[in-house]
């Protein structure tokens, strides 16, 4: 069936959303126009405002419309520990897990020389400048456990160590609550290589 | 973690989309702001335009920015057959199945007296007016096979029959390609009640 041009355009635009294909986009477009115009207006207004107002935190570079995000502005957070992640979503996952009380630095993704994405594009120069300016006792590299994430972690580690900063990498191993049977070989190898001696009462 | 107010608002607004909960909305908001601002601008522009321009076809009441939709404006479609559905999405499903060459009438949902939705709210008066004005040989009721859809079909059928229109209801039975084992009892009863004698060569 031929949708009218404006509806077709809307369906195509909605496919910019992550995980949304033509079928879901069509369902969304019809739903918004037929049943929830108020909701559609809210999306237009809040998305337009966010696009014009939301930028990056001056310190950690996460998304925020403020100069400094709520974590960087929180005096109770430990300034001397810096956790480096690839995206605001990763920072969010760590925050939701609880337990971490330090600061963050959010890269704009990972190194990908094939796509022309080098250290400057993801903000490594800014990170290194911060390491030189503030007293960071430990930098925790929490980039993704992918080939690109590992390469990015390795690259940053070398630069930071040269500056005299203590650098750590989050542990790789079997996920908590999973079953060993379903864990992939690479993870198992990491889990064995990273094994720790147990003491009494553990 | 505390998102900044504008990002929070955006995440809440995106939950107006059908099938999108807090987690997916959060993922969408971060993706649009961090990785696809061009796409976000397209969504804002096309949704705003659609909201202001898209209304209903004057004849079948489907969504379109034109006075008459492409089906109503198509001289090759059979004007004397009218298929009544509950939403533009239902019309689309029938069009994608192919085979139907008549016109449509799109109700604004189904009768739901508890929610104060009576015949006028879903456009039954407009449908009956059309039946009196144009020569409809057959009206096919293709409302959903739900309690409300059946009640709506029954109500419309009574009014249309009183106007001397031939009214049919789409068949209820076992879905093509499914396995009998997994078909619910109500559908099986309908399938038995609606059984047809087979001839040679069928």
Automatic annotation (TrEMBL), chains A, B:
Gene name on record?
recR
Q: Which UniProt keywords apply?
A: DNA damage, DNA recombination, DNA repair, Metal-binding, Zinc, Zinc-finger
**Hey, which family's this protein in?**
Belongs to the RecR family.
Q: Which NCBIfam families match?
A: recR
Q: What does this protein do?
A: May play a role in DNA repair. It seems to be involved in an RecBC-independent recombinational process of DNA repair. It may act with RecF and RecO.
Sequence ranges assigned to domain Toprim in this UniProt record: 80-175
* Name the record gives this protein: Recombination protein RecR
User: Where are the membrane-spanning stretches?
Assistant: none
Alphabetized InterPro entries for the sequence: DNA_Rcmb_RecR, Rcmb_RecR, Rcmb_RecR_Znf, TOPRIM_dom, TOPRIM_RecR
User: What GO biological process terms are annotated to this protein in UniProt?
Assistant: DNA recombination; DNA repair
């Amino acid at each position: 069936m031929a949708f009218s041009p404006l509806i077709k355009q809307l369906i195509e635009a909605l496919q910019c959303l992550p995980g949304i294909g033509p079928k879901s986009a069509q369902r969304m477009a019809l739903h918004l126009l037929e049943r929830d115009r108020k909701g559609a207006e809210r999306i237009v207004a809040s998305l337009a405002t966010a696009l014009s107002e939301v930028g990056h935190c001056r310190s950690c570079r996460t998304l925020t419309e403020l100069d400094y995000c709520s974590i960087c502005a929180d005096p109770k957070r430990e300034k001397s520990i810096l956790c480096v992640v690839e995206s605001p979503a990763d920072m969010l996952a760590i925050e939701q897990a609880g337990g971490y009380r330090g600061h963050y630095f959010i890269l704009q993704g990972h190194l990908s020389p094939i796509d022309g994405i080098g250290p400057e594009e993801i903000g490594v120069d800014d990170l290194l400048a911060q390491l030189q300016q503030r007293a960071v006792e430990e930098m925790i590299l929490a980039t993704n456990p992918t080939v690109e994430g590992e390469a990015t972690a390795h690259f940053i580690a070398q630069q930071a160590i040269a500056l005299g900063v203590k650098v750590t990498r989050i542990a790789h191993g079997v996920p908590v609550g999973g079953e060993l049977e379903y864990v992939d070989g690479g993870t198992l190898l990491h889990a064995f290589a990273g094994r720790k001696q147990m003491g009494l009462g553990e």
